[in-house]
Amino acid sequence: SRIPADAGMVFLTRLDDLLSKGGDDIFSLLPPNIQVSVMVKNIIQDPSTIGLDLSEPLQAHLSPAEGKAEQFTLGVAGKLSDREKFKNTFELVDNQSKPIQKDGYELYQIEGNESLAIGPDFFYLCLTESPVSSKSELVKFMKADGSDGLLSSQESFSSLSQEKHDFSIWFGGDSIWDYANFDQIDQLSMDSLKGSEGKFTLNFEAGEMRMNMRVKTPNNELVYGKGEFSDEILKLTPSDAIFSLGFATDLPKFLKYLEKDIISEFEDDFNADEPIAELGNLSIRDVINTFTGEFMLSLTDIKMPDPTSLADAAEDDPFGDIVMEDMEDMDALPDAAGSEDAALPMMDPTAMLMAALPKPEFIIGASIDSEKWATLKASPPLAMGLGLAMMQGYAVTEKDGFLIITSKDHIEASQSGKVANPVSGNSVPLYKENDFVMIFKVEPLLDMGLPIPTGEAMDMLKKISHLEAYSNSGQNEGTGTFRIVFTDSAKNSFSTVVEMISKTI
Fold it and tell me: How far apart are CA 155 and CA 76, in angstroms?
């Protein structure tokens, strides 16, 4: 309740839950010289030994320093079970003298811009860009009574504070977008984001790690999704795909956003309507407008090359790489022993390379404007590309308003406009309630004989069943979810994640 009303971002972490879910695996993250420390292990197992009470989430917030958008305050606060234990630990670790007595709290001046205050049952660490701001913001937090804080003024934050998540972030108001202009993105305009608010949550459950996001924008300016996938494109989506990636969006509107807020910041003379000779005088906008917004890629198999295919490639074109300009006839070709009595068949390197590569089996569906597609596919580079694809055995078909590109396993679907086993049952809502979907099934991928290195890399992959990411941006209150589902459905996922991280550091 003490968080100021102008805070643009708040972080909440339930360390007690994370410590419980991580168990002894957490110790594997500690540096080797600390792992043997009995004191550190005791603190992790029981934070109350240093006076911390983790029954309430640890919190941090960002807010403008003294109302100045170009400066911000980072405040960190947590509950204390024993303030004297906490003070004694801090003084010992940081080599601090006794705190300064203030009206209702005690103050440690750590360094120029950092201060630590100890209240009746909580601590507050304040970091700002100037000592003056640090003192002002610290006093404001310690003296707050909650009547005009963020909790009472922002219903969305109040709602989130009642939810229980392992980790959560709330953001909103205009202040966050003012000091979000970090150096690496200082050319981008944040004006279209002002007035937005949202939340991000992260939870570790048995067998699953789940991240959720909800963002609400003040208008439909940033709404680009269609809200769902059509029945037509779901007919082209196999239920057994090991990888699926699809989106349904308003492409012309998204291009206008890119022109206005992104590209214009870097390219002053960008013109999406300028004819491009290489595209048969079509413009970038013409190309984009050919597609009406739905796209789905499904990968169903990856076939490793058959050793006999190399021999087949040699038989198909045994002299594909021989230059004949200086040879009058084939008798001039040396044999393997260096004589000139016999010719040596030579393989076309291109054919050899193609034969040695893994063969993906896939189907791609993209909704199109048929008339515009007829114009686009006649442009020289695309016509050449489609011709080469068909020479490699891929099917390129236009049917019922969709461009369908398939490998050999799905040629029948390119003709009928439907795969043999489209998504159905419990899988359908995932596509009908979202306009972006990504699914990656790890388990079947490991059974394909791909050249994945053995050892820890393979061991970590074996712990993952599948990944999912999906979102709905069809309204000004968009949602998004990312899930990692593990093969061990009984073990808490935080313990699994910690174990995987410990093997990479």
Answer: 22
